[in-house]
Amino acid sequence: MATDQKDTRPKVKNLGELRDSGYRYRSVREEIRSNLLQHLSEGSSVFPGIIGFDSTVIPQVQRALLAMHDFILLGLRGQAKTRLIRTLTRLLDPYIPAVEGVDVPDDPLRPVFGTSRRIIEEKGEDTPIRWIARDERFQEKLATPDVSIADLIGDIDPVKVMSRRLELADEAAIHYGIIPRTNRGIFAINELPDLQPRIQVGLLNILEENDIQIRGFPIRIPLDVLMVFTANPEDYTNRGSIITPLKDRIDAQILTHYPSDIEDAKSITQQEAWVPSLNGSEVVIPDYIKEIVDQIAFEARDSEYVDQNSGVSQRLAISFYETLHSTVEHRMICAGGTIEVARMCDLYQCVPAMTGKMELVFKGEQEGVVTVAHRLINQATREVFDRLFLPPGRSRRNRKIDPEPYRDIIDWFEKGNHLDLSDDLSFPEYFGRLKKIDGLERVTRKQLKPKDDRLLATAMEFTLEGLVQHFLVSKKYDADTVRYVDTVSEMMRQL
Fold first, then answer.
1. Low-confidence stretches of the chain (pLDDT beneath 50)
2. Are 307 and 382 contained in the same domain?
3. Taking burial as the number of CB atoms within 10 A of a residue's CB, which of 77, 155, 312, 385 is the most buried?
4. Shared domain check, 453 and 423
5. Does one domain contain both 474 and 349?
């Protein structure tokens, strides 16, 4: 049917031609169900760009749509709830017909609005037809405390009443809200608990009886709308709740979640992050640094310093990656080069991308948001280092590194040597300082196998950072410089 409508769009101009074309009315729910069944039978992707939900959220959404249910996506911020509901338009037909000259979409064969019926009565088979694309059939509204019943459903328009001398109970006196104007489509309300309870009551009839009433006048208009909602858990928002009768009328409640593994998280970040076109220049970010970026979000979701009820959005990793890319680009431009590789010290320049995306508990606020951010970066670095350098299968919490393979590095620092690094060092200076450390290049080449000197230099700093996280080397900050020193000497100095 979708193909037929697309083919007939330029040809069918009026109601008579529409009848002759074989078009038949289907409700939005029937239309979505039919198209979903076709997608499933063909094995095609129904929700492109949604990563990590293949065996959890997406099957539940599909079952709700097959049952022709309204549903709500319930989850913490940054869990792709809005993105998922916006992809529902793929399940609509490419085009549907509507009566020309009517503000609200109304099917020509099954008109429910008085204006449509009057036009059809006057013009008969010559009633002009317009075609509505699938993207025009989706509307969404962010629930805020100032949203009114008039915004969502409609109200009596006093200008129409006075200018046309209409009765208040006349349907022509109504100015329709956004939900009736989405008739024959999908309407979404984001952050449903923020909607005032008295406004939520106004949705009850739409969900149960599929009709609306305006101002208590005897006007009942059956709507053909699929309603979908998103919300954060009620115990988090504290700004409101979903009233019990409305909960009861929403057919399905589907729980969303954050990426469950690092590979899904990396795929999301790489898909969503914006990086500029550099016109022949190149910014290189090694895979293990990309992994650290996404691991930071995992560490934050498990941190005792971060409020887990508010969640840590995947936007943290996305913003962090974009900031990291710009940090490397900034150094490349200032140095006048055409290629630059991200360094471990660049990660600490990206703290501003983290601080606004974490709600700290009291303990975290005492530590300070920058200190917490640095701690999360360090924890993520250790996690990724252990995956690459330690044998698999060891418990995450009890992993200890064997110092013997790194003995030359440790001895170099024990002799009183230190290493100073900063993100603004030229590459020759940066690489030259790292090469002075005995054994560091050998260990790094063996474990990470970098392809060239630029990648080798960053990998050497990564190796050094991993040893810091295992307390085999110490690190301290001084203004714009990071200094690596012997652990025992640093402890004695502090004592």
1. 1-8, 10, 235-237, 395
2. yes
3. 312
4. yes
5. no
Which of 169, 188, 168, 170 shows the shortest CA–CA distance to 178? 188
Model pTM score: 0.87
Res 6: pLDDT: 44
Domain count, the chain: 3
Q: Among the three residues 344, 369, 399, which one is the final residue of a domain in this structure?
A: 399
**356 and 481 part of one domain:** no
Q: What's the pLDDT at 1?
A: 42
Domain boundary among 345, 375, 399: 399
Residue 407 lies in a domain: yes
- Asked if the structure places residue 167 within a domain, the reply is no
Three-state SS annotation for the chain = CHHHHHHHCCCCCEHHHHHHCCCCCCCHHHHHHHHHHHHHHHCCCCCCCCCCCCCCHHHHHHHHHHCCCCEEEECCCCCCHHHHHHHHHHHCCCEEEEECCCCCCCCCCCCCCHHHHHHHHHHHHHCEEEEEEHHHHEEEEECCCCCCHHHHCEEECHHHHHHHCCCCCCHHHEEECCCHHHCCEEEEEECHHHCCHHHHHCCHHHHHCCEECCCCCCCCEECCEEEEEEECCHHHHCCCCCCHHHHHHCCEEEECCCCCCHHHHHHHHHHHCCCCCCCCCEEECCHHHHHHHHHHHHHHCCCCCECCCCCCCCHHHHHHHHHHHHHHHHHHHHHCCCEEECCHHHHHHHCHHHHCCCCECHHHHHHCHHHHHHHHHHHHHHHHHHHHHCCCCCCCCCCCCCCHHHHHHHHHHHCCCCEEECCCCCHHHHHHHHHCCCCHHHHHHHHHCCCCHHHHHHHHHHHHHHHHHCCCEEEEEECCEEEEEEHHHHHHHHC
User: pLDDT tens, 90-149?
Assistant: 999 999 999 998 888 999 999 988 888 889 999 999 999 999 999 999 999 999 888 988
Domain with 109 in it: 2-148+183-190+224-255
Verify that 44 and 130 share a domain, yes or no: yes
pLDDT for residue 8: 47
The answer to whether residue 98 sits within a structural domain is yes
CA nearest to 70, candidates 195, 237, 192: 192
The pLDDT score that the predictor gives to residue 479 is: 66
The verdict on 362 and 284 lying in the same domain is yes
Q: Is residue 196 part of a domain?
A: no
Convert the pLDDT of each residue in 183-231 to its tens digit: 999 999 999 998 888 889 888 888 877 777 776 665 678 889 999 999 9
